[in-house]
Specification:
2 copies of one chain form a homodimer. Chain A is built from 14 helices and 20 strands. The first copy, chain A, has 417 residues and is α/β, with parallel strands linked by helices. Chain A folds into 2 domains: 250 residues, Carbamate kinase, CATH 3.40.1160.10; 157 residues, VC0802-like. At the A-B interface, helix 1, helix 2, helix 3 and helix 4 of A face helix 1, helix 2, helix 3 and helix 4 of B.
């Protein structure tokens, strides 16, 4: 079980978390709990580091920020004890959670779980601070912001857990953003790959890295809310969304939809380079400098230009990197040989995601027709095995999401659209 | 060097501390720094523990409260790095600082200092969180409130330091409380034993345990202020008070005073049991139950009673334990066989302290005469090798301290009394 910062914000909320944990133990489960720092605490500690040293040493930064989870792990153990449970905290260096790679963004390589499993089998609830580990030189590491999700999946894999329940402030993964579409439905199951596509294009429920790790390790992850009514769901029901493998999904009785969900992302910006020479290697001249600058290019479309031997190249980058992208390309203008740079930050990427489309044609055609029927202009298209994405005017985001949600038959019954 | 919570309260003050540390290094010293948590932080963490579980498990309490010093040690290392110094934090479990005894009040038994000394010799400033250690079962311990002074002395002993400088919000140890006597003088030297007597009777500058440890390990401790003017004292001067052994004191050129200081303590309460049977074992009946209840009895005086075969017994206990003391004695009334319990919380203990009195008679007589001359009534007397204490009416505390300060020739010249 993993609880985020909002769930751990103060002793009153920690008591609520302890009740949820105790209920799972009472239902017969052996339980390990991974906790985040209190909401706002990590920001407070990061600010201290910035004030102390703007170019901070990541090793000392890790010493400072790892303290937030240390505090909540001790407090949750104390709270569970007050409820009559056996519980103890296991800090990252105590297990230890071995990590490698740079401080402040380390990767888990191995977790020594022998003592942990023994304690859990003896009926003790293990409370583990998320986000933290131990480097080979015996110093504290952290996994990067949001790393507690990854900690939880790694612990689940290490102890061979039946399930990794990630408690958040939403009660599951939806077919689309419920703030846009009132008739969005909560998914009971979603595959790792669908979750990765949904997460990376805007359904920010879980840290992407934790989903990749769950897929690699075969950990069944459930996303659910820690703010549910205490009496409503019995402990063994699955009140949230289960993230599972393709195989488990196929074995499940669920009637599969062609499309699982619609995601949107307003953080992209479009860049067009006009009249680029249409010759081998021209595109490499554009994207090599961006890659070197760690700018993440997403959609790429090459249009045939009006003039023979020339082409227009369109692509998207994160809005935050747009200015840097322009500067880099201007510096390479002669080498690339383009005419103009046209940029537009007022765009949105709308994605239709579903493993079902692997075996069905016509998913993209449905998308294009539905959007065209409402007069929504498509600026760029990209596809993967389980996703079709289009770039549109940002103002039309909500309209496009609603239109597609209906077009793929995702609307819940009995809820006003 | 050790810095308390007031000195570490916020990144601005930590920068001030870093400047003081850098100055010592620039003067040619190898430096290790022991730090407290930011002022108020330990209280905040203790409150969290109390809210989580009023009967908290001291092992988890230690996990929570040790985080305060972890944060400041990382921040001081970062701040020193920002000033161009090499620095790193060494947490209690990293050195490790081996401890034994109960959680939340553990005792340091051994510090592995090899890596620490190597790093210091290589020019790296070692920053060590105070108050924390490691139990033999690999769990975090803390040394009890104020334990950072003890950590500092223990580290100083482990690395064979020339000096242990304890920076506080006062600039040294005075002949008496300067708020009472304007002509109080700062002592340049004081012996461990004098410091113990001065500390335990009210001059609360250092944790008593840290002074005992310094005496046992022969660590030269200096008490000085972290709020001194940056330009005033050169780094190698001793702007504070040095706490040293008898031998060093004798070797020093200082002209020894008969009396080193006057302490006062308003936290005692007086208890009188009247008409206690004057027979063997009677006194044991009084004090055994108090000892079992961990009530610290200080002065004890047995007066000859007016009736033959009876005696009055007077003693003092901490005011906080007075109600419990009364209840315990009432429960044993028959066994002890006293007539009445008379209590008085409006008393003060005034102590005259000095190693010089070992070899000089008349110190007590001077005290009694000086107090009698001003009409101050003595309710009880107790003496040790280097201390004479009297119990008086609390309202006369300030008068008594001033009278004695003058009587023993401690007044500074040129300052209005």
């Amino acid at each position: 079980m993993k609880f985020g910062g909002t769930s751990m914000a103060g002793t009153e909320r920690i008591r609520r978390v302890a009740q949820i944990v105790r209920k799972q133990q009472a239902a017969g489960h052996e339980v390990a709990v991974v906790v985040s720092a209190m909401a706002g605490e990590t920001d407070r500690l990061v600010n201290f580091c910035r004030e102390a040293n703007p170019l901070f040493d990541p090793a000392e930064y890790d010493v400072v920020v790892a303290s937030g989870e240390q505090v909540t792990s001790g407090l949750l153990a104390l709270t569970l004890q007050a409820m009559g449970c056996q519980a103890r905290s296991w800090l990252g260096w105590q297990l230890p959670v071995h990590t490698e790679g740079a401080h402040a963004k380390a990767r888990v390589v191995d977790i020594e779980s022998h003592a942990l499993i023994e304690a859990m089998q003896a009926g003790e609830i293990a409370v583990i601070p998320g986000f933290q580990g131990l480097a080979s030189d015996n110093r504290i590491t952290t996994l990067g912001r949001g790393g507690s999700d990854t900690s939880a999946v790694a612990i689940a894999a290490a102890v061979g857990a039946d399930r990794c329940d990630i408690y958040t402030d939403v009660d599951g993964v939806y077919t689309t953003d419920p703030r846009i579409v009132a008739r969005a439905r909560k998914l009971k199951y979603v595959t790792y790959e669908e979750m990765l596509e949904l997460a990376s294009v805007g359904a920010k429920v879980l840290q992407t890295r934790s989903v990749s790790l769950a897929m690699k390790e075969g950990v069944r992850v459930q996303v659910l809310s820690s703010f549910i009514d205490d009496d409503a769901p019995p402990a063994d029901d699955l009140p949230g969304t289960m993230i599972v493998s393709d195989e488990e999904m196929e074995k499940s009785d669920m009637e599969r939809q062609l499309v699982t969900g619609i995601a949107h992302d307003k953080n992209e910006a479009r860049v067009v380079l006009t009249r680029v020479p249409d010759r081998p290697g021209a595109v490499a001249h554009i994207f090599s400098p961006l890659a070197q600058a760690s700018i993440n290019v997403d959609m790429i479309i090459q249009n045939v230009g009006r003039e023979k031997g020339e082409t227009d190249v369109t692509f998207t980058v994160p809005q935050a990197d747009l200015a840097r992208t322009q500067a880099l390309l201007e510096a390479k203008r002669e080498e690339i040989g383009f005419n103009r740079i046209i940029t537009d930050a007022k765009v949105a990427k709308i994605s239709v995601v579903g493993v079902g489309m692997r075996s069905h044609a016509g998913v993209a055609a449905t998308m294009f027709k539905a959007l065209a029927d409402r007069g929504i202009n498509i600026q760029a298209i990209s596809t993967s095995e389980i996703k079709v994405s289009v770039l549109i005017d940002e103002d039309e985001t909500e309209l496009a999401v609603r239109v597609l949600h209906t077009a793929y038959g995702l609307d819940a019954d009995g809820v006003a659209a």
